Amino acid sequence: MRVLLAEDDPMIGASIRQYLRNEGYAVDHLRDGRSVNEVLDSEHFDLLLLDLALPTRSGMEILQQLRSVGNAMPVIIVTARDRVDDRVAGLDFGADDYLVKPFSLRELAARIRCALRRSVGRSDADIELDGIRICTHTRRVSCHGEDVLLSAKEYAIVEALTRRPGTILSKAQIEERLYGWGDDVDSNTVAVHIHSIRQKLGQNFIHTLRGVGYFVPGSGKAEQ
C-alpha cells in the first residue's frame, strides 16, 4: 500500500516513515501543503496522513479540496491540535480519523489498517479466498491452514490484489504500492515477486492477463 505523509516536522516525519516502511508500506514524505496538492493531482496513493499545521497551505484546506473534487482516498489527520472544535471540524470536513500527537506508532498503524478496510467496504480484518487466509492486522498468511512466510513486498502485493478480488493491477500500479520516491526498481521485480508468491500460495492464486496486469479471481473489473 502506498501512503503519502504530509508532515512538516522532519524528525516526526522520519520516524513515521521508517516505522511504516518496516511494516511494508511504501511511504512518501512531503513537508509543505502546496507540494501535497501538486502530488495528489498527479499520483495515486492509498491513504494520506495529514498534519494540519503545514506551511504554504494548511492541512484543512488540502482536505477540503480533496473532498470537493470527489476524491474519497482515506485521510487520517495527525496533529498536535487537541481541541474538540478542531477534531469536529476535521471529521466534518471529511477526515476518516483524527489522531493527536504524541501517539503510539502501533496505534497509527492499526488506524491505517482500519481506514484501508473501510475504504473497500470491509469490516473484517481477515480476507479468505480459496483456502488462502490473510489476517491484515497481524500480517499473517496461511494456505489451507498452514502458515506461509511472505516477505514484506510479497505480502504487500497479496494484500493489494485481495483487497478487491477481480480488480486488475498493472505492473506499474503494483510498483506504486511497493516503492516510494527514490527507491531503485528493477524492471523484472514485480514478476519475481509474483513467481515467489505462486510458489508459496499456488500457481493459480494470482492470474496474469497478458499485457494488462495481475489479479486474483473475483468480479473481473479493472482499476482506473
Describe the secondary-structure layout.
Blueprint: E1 2-6, H1 10-22, E2 26-30, H2 33-42, E3 47-50, H3 59-68, E4 75-79, H4 84-92, E5 97-100, H5 105-119, E6 126-129, E7 132-135, E8 140-143, E9 146-148, H6 152-163, H7 171-178, H8 189-201, E10 207-209, E11 213-215
Parallel strand pairs: 1-2, 1-3, 3-4, 4-5
Antiparallel strand pairs: 6-7, 7-8, 8-9, 10-11
Report on the structure:
The protein is α/β, with parallel strands linked by helices and 224 residues long. Helices cover 40% and strands 20% of the residues. It is built from eight helices and eleven strands. The strands form three sheets. It has a five-stranded parallel sheet, sandwiched between helices. A hairpin with a 4-residue loop joins strand 7 (132-135) and strand 8 (140-143). Helix 6 (152-163) packs across helix 8 (189-201). The two termini are 16 Å apart. The relative contact order is 0.12.
